[in-house]
User: Fold this.
Amino acid sequence: MKVGKDLMAASAAPLVLAILTEGESYGYAIVRRVRELSDGEIEWTDGLLYPLLHRLEDGGHVRSRWGASDTGRKRRYYEITDAGRGELAEHRRQWAAVVAALRTAWGDAAEAASVATMRPGVAL
Assistant:
């Protein structure tokens, strides 16, 4: 199973901001960390990540700098700002509400399915 595009897009900003709370990072390392956090279920492309990083930077949520990699090549490093930490806190509040609603809905659906299997002829 792979995560659908809509859910991937909705979760991208909070994931990047959360990863950057671990410390400064660069594009490929962020993609690799997302893969690790999702046990391989979320696969990002450059086409998703870099426009997002630019939007976060334009919004003041991250800042970037150019630096050298271990191989000496130039690499752009990103770090979260105080505004980004505030934005991440807001994302956490919103996702907590979504998760709570889903748990309730799925719990109610599971209970209804259980009752329906005990009583033949009951439609869900």
